[in-house]
């Protein structure tokens, strides 16, 4: 008998806010699904759309990008750069064949452990409903054009 599908979700988070929010969720003993593989970066301004493509190419079924709220970035403008980059990348998603529902962008502060746990729960449930993401991996395999960072 095969196991039910459990999505793999890669979360690119900034260390000052969302990572601290995740830490708060953990220390508060809030429950959320264990489907997240967290990649901690200094700021969302460092997150390239290529990271998202690479994660999906390497087997992720969904991706989360999350950092400090606008105005709270520890590097002043990093999250504004990330938001602009996300706006452009979102417009290109149709071209790449990646459904928008597989990628989520959010702001979570260090004080928002509950929000973090709720977001992970809802994202995991949404990706579970979508099922495994094989199309993009198959596409990459066909063209043999791996994404490099
Ligand atoms: Fe958190 Fe810039 S330091 S988004």
Automatic annotation (TrEMBL):
Swiss-Prot/TrEMBL keywords? Iron, Iron-sulfur, Metal-binding, Oxidoreductase
Q: Which GO terms describe its molecular function?
A: iron-sulfur cluster binding; metal ion binding; oxidoreductase activity
Segments forming domain F420-non-reducing hydrogenase iron-sulfur subunit D: 9-131
The molecule here is called Heterodisulfide reductase subunit MvhD
Which branch of life, at top level? Bacteria
Record-linked Pfam families: FlpD
Q: Which organism is it from?
A: Chlorobium limicola
